[in-house]
Design a protein that fits this description.
The protein contains three helices and six strands; from the N terminus they run H-H-E-E-E-E-E-E-H. It is of the alpha+beta class. The protein has a six-stranded antiparallel β-sheet with strand order 1-2-3-4-6-5, with helices on one face. 29% of the residues are buried. It comes from Flavobacterium ginsengiterrae.
């Protein structure tokens, strides 16, 4: 695991750390081609420089965010923001359904909007895959 991501996880409360450890481990196992780092103070995985998935500690939960998640057609993911992102939130590690997570990660790999160039395109998203 990326040292910075492990340090992020280690800073969380025991329950939130367990959620973060499961998420980071499963994402690393499934998206082996993805680069990962702390980006805007949160763990994020990138494919070809494009952010696809990450998580962050919120006040009362850990949010798993998929940048292109609104295009996944997954009822358990809730729309987030004004672009194409969707999220799931967890308050305990037993809420994480590994089969759902693997399906979402597969979609994150295969359904992507071009966030890498969103500034250059003045906020316009173009579908890559």
């Amino acid at each position: 695991m990326n040292k910075e991501i492990q340090e992020y996880n280690d800073l969380q409360s025991p329950g939130d750390k367990k959620i973060c450890d499961i998420l980071s481990s499963e994402i690393d196992i499934f998206l082996t081609e993805a680069e990962n780092k702390i980006w805007h103070r949160h763990p994020v995985w990138f494919i070809d420089g494009n952010p696809v998935v990450g998580y962050s500690k919120l006040k009362d939960s850990v949010r798993l965010l998929f940048w292109s998640g609104q295009s996944f057609d997954e009822p358990k993911l809730k729309n987030e923001g004004s672009f194409k992102a969707a999220e799931a939130q967890y308050t305990t590690s037993d809420q994480i359904n590994i089969e759902d997570l693997k399906r979402w990660l597969d979609k994150a790999r295969n359904i992507q909007w071009d966030y890498k160039n969103i500034v250059k395109r003045k906020g316009v998203l173009i579908r890559l895959k």
